[in-house]
Design goal:
- By secondary structure, this protein is α+β, with helices and mostly antiparallel strands.
- It has one domain (16-137).
- The protein contains five helices and six strands, in the order H-E-E-E-E-E-H-H-H-H-E.
- Strands 1, 2, 3, 4, 5 and 6 form a six-stranded antiparallel beta sheet that branches.
- Helix 2 runs antiparallel to helix 3.
- The longest helix is centred in the middle third of the chain and has 18 residues, at 64-81.
């Protein structure tokens, strides 16, 4: 019976609300809190290498346009969740429109591009043992 009671306890780490991405960048969104105390959103960003599934927090200059696109996707998804104040939702929707104007399709154009050493650089960072070069494989 005691084993069953452990299964019904809240997990120590909350489950993510969703996973979104733009090009090689992905972000996990968490929705913390409740209706009584208020909702708080948190998110992270990582880069995933397509050939080997390696995940890193090291980014490259070519990722900058994808950062902007990922911010736009995050703003849309969080605004659409419905647990924000009216003012917060309006601000995120305005940000989304402004980013769309700024991008002008730039993120879409760079999605398939890589610099000649993009894959090699990513792998080299992990092999060198740099502090941010720690990786996990999926």
């Amino acid at each position: 019976m005691k084993a069953n009671s452990k299964r019904t306890q809240e997990p120590c780490c909350p489950k993510p609300m969703m996973l979104v991405g733009a090009g090689p960048l992905t972000s996990t969104i968490w929705k913390l809190g409740n209706a009584e105390s208020g909702w708080r959103y948190r998110f992270n960003m990582v880069r995933q290498s397509i050939p080997n599934g390696c995940i890193t927090d090291l980014f490259q200059p070519i990722d900058l346009a994808q950062f902007v696109k990922l911010i736009q996707v995050l703003a849309v998804e969080i605004a659409n969740d419905g647990c924000l104040t009216h003012g917060e939702r309006l601000m995120l929707r305005s940000l989304t429109r402004q980013l769309d104007e700024i991008l002008g399709g730039t993120a879409d154009k760079t999605e398939g591009e890589t610099t000649p050493n993009t894959r090699k650089n990513s792998l080299d960072d992990h092999k060198k043992g740099t502090p941010h070069g720690q990786a996990t494989h999926t």
